[in-house]
Known about the structure:
Blueprint lengths: L9 H13 L4 E5 L4 H16 L3 E5 L8 H6 L15 E4 L14 H18 L4 E6 L2 E2 L5 E2 L4 H12 L2 E6 L23 E4 L12 E5 H6 L15 H16 L2 H22 L3 E7 L2 E6 L16 H12 L6 E2 L2 E4 L7 H19 L1
Parallel strand pairs: 2-3, 2-4, 4-7, 7-8
Antiparallel strand pairs: 1-9, 5-6, 8-9, 10-11, 11-13, 12-13
Helix pairs in contact: 1-7, 4-5, 8-10, 9-10
Amino acid sequence: MVYGGIGVTEVRLRLANLLSEVCPGDINGFVFPCGGGEANEAAIRIARRFTGKNKIFTQYRSYHGGTTSTLAATGDFRRWYAEAGASGFVKMFNSQPFGFKWGNDDAEKTELLLSMLDEQIRMEGPETIAAIMLEPIVGAGGVLVAPKGYMEGVRALCDKYNILLIFDEVMVGFGRTGKFWGFQHFEGVIPDILTSAKGLSAAYMPLAMVGMRQKIKDYFMDVPLGWGATFANHPVSMACAYECVKHTIKHDLTGNAKKMEPIMVEEMSKLVNKHRSVRQARAIGLFGCLDLVGPDGHSLQELQEAPSAKTKEFRQAMFTNGLWGLFRPPLIHCAPPLVINEEQLRDGFARLDKALDTLDA
């Protein structure tokens, strides 16, 4: 173990080199925090130090971590816990209103959304905005995919106003969506700063990454980064991550996620058609989400509300049927292992089908 500010271990160099090969464009400078929130905290600080500007735009339906700055950057109810501990974060509306279906190729609405963002940038003052920080595919907020052209438009606005683009891929990086990176679903879009965590070490060891483009890396070769942590860049965690990334590539787990996507869509559509408690569902790769409703047809409950007796009963039904997953009413996420096969995936949805009977009763 060598503190990253004092020396560099061989495995750190090997992992950084491997990541530079799997990252498109000129993303080739890396630091390795211990978790996703810490990575996003570092990304925010890097953006502010590089640009000399303070404001960070983030979306309402987002989650970026539990530290002071990342919780303030978060858009959902959890940002309330940040209290007055951080400033400079400006919220923008998502391109996918929750519970509302837009066509993926609805160019007119996409143009309207980008026009609204352009106006917001101008009203805030581009000279005050360091970065726009987004989940390219919203994770805990409900697996929301931006309509065609939106992310491309955000990249163009960042270039127009000299604003950095940060992508938080803590959940969707490393093959989860059927592309190695979530942002690769959007043609020609490359972030200035990229964060990821969970898939890096398959969650076997606490490790995250912050990747940055060449211009930012070059800047911090001579200017102090202003970020560090005792156990960041830990060689044991990086050795684990190095093998996991190699395994992901060798066995094409990204390809398996893409291959399983039609099964995800098919099985989730069955649940929508069968259960009145399921309003809609969506999936990209092996990343899906169901929106649940109550007997009155409205949302089962708001995210910030305490679990009701009905949701507790459903959670128990999941356990009874051998399911363990992220259920945060009204959302139930479906993120099976990237090594799953068709038989196992269909079996999982059959178990969920039985559990959902509880909500329909």
